[in-house]
Amino acid sequence: MADNTFHNSNSTSYLVLLDFFFCLLQNSPAIQENRVTTVQCLSGTGSLRVGAEFLARHYHQHTIYIPQPTWGNHTKVFTLAGLSVKPYCYYDPATRGLNFKGLLEDLGSAPSGAIVLLHACAHNPTGVDPTLQQWEQIRQLMRSKGLLPFFDSAYQGFASGSLDADAQSVRMFVADGGECLVAQSYAKNMGLYGERVGALSIVCRTADVASRVESQLKLVIRPMYSNPPIHGASIVATILKDRNMFQEWTMELKGMADRIISMRHQLFDALRARGTPGDWSHIIKQIGMFTFTGLNSEQVAFMTKEYHIYMTSDGRISMAGLSSKTVPHLTDAIHAAVTRAV
Ligand SMILES: Cc1ncc(COP(=O)(O)O)c(C=O)c1O
Q1: pLDDT tens, residue by residue, 281-297
Q2: Whose CA is nearest to atom 8 of ligand 1?
Q3: Who is most buried in 46, 62, 302, 313, counting CB within 10 A?
C-alpha cells in the first residue's frame, strides 16, 4: 500500500491519505499513473461538501442529479455549495426495488456534462442497489453522455461483508479511464463516527490535471477548516497499512454485515410465520444497514404510539439496531399496523 504523504504548502498543511482510496481501488492504473488526488476530509459529509465546493468553482456544469429518494443531507450539502439539485428516478414503491427504466430515462435526458450522485453501495435510505449488469449499463449511458459520476461511499463493506464486492461500482467507472469523484467515509465501517474520518478522491485523466486539482482542493479546504483532525485518520491509516490488522478488520466487518443479513432473515421469517399480509421479500432482497419497509407514515406513527418503536416516518428501519430479542416485538408491531382497521 502507498505511504501516507504529508503535503506542506505555504498556506496549508494536511494529510493526503492515498491509503484511504486504496481500500476502494487497490492497485488500479489510475493510482499507479498518479491520476488520483485524495484529500482527507471531515468524514463522508465533509468529503461531499469539499467535492461540491470544488465543482461549483471549477466545473462547467452546476446541476447535480441525486437519486429519489436519497440520504436527507445530500440536497442541503449540494445546494449550500452552490450546485443546483435535481432528482432522478431510483426507487419503485410498487416493487420496493429499483426503478431501472425510470433511472435510465432520467439520466438519458440529463444535459451533457451534468453531475450524477451515485451511492457506491448500500443505498440509503432504500437498501436497493443496482446489479452489476445494471451498473454497467449506467456506466455506459453516463460515459456516452459525458455525465460526471460523483460516488458517495459511506458503507463500503456493509452491503455484502466484502470490501471488494462493495467497491465494484466505483472500480467499474475508474477502469474505463474516465473522470469521477468519490467521497468516502470510515465512520461506519471502522466504527469511528465521532472521529470524522473520510476522504475525497478525484480521479483525473492525467497526472498533470490531478496535481492541479489538488492545489485547488487545498484552496477550498483552507478557508473552511484549515486542517482535518489527525488521530482518527491515523487509526485508519495504521489499520490499512498493517496486513494483520487489515485482515482482522475485514473479518469484523464481515461479522457485522452477516449479523445484519441474519436480522433480515429473522424478521422476514417471523412476518411470514405470523401470516402478516403482504410480500415482505424486499426485507431480504435489500442490502446494507437500512430496510425501506414500505410502511406508511400512519403505520409508523401507530407503531411509535402503541409499541414504542421509533423509525423515520418514511418507514426506514436500521437493521443494525435489531437483535434476535427485539424481532418478535417488531413483528407484533408491524402485524398490528398492517392489519388494524382504519
Ligand atoms: C449515504 C450517506 N452518505 C454520507 C453520509 C455521511 O457520512 P458521515 O457520517 O461519514 O459524514 C451518510 C451518513 O449517514 C450516508 O448515509
Answers
A1: 999 999 998 999 999 99
A2: 44
A3: 46
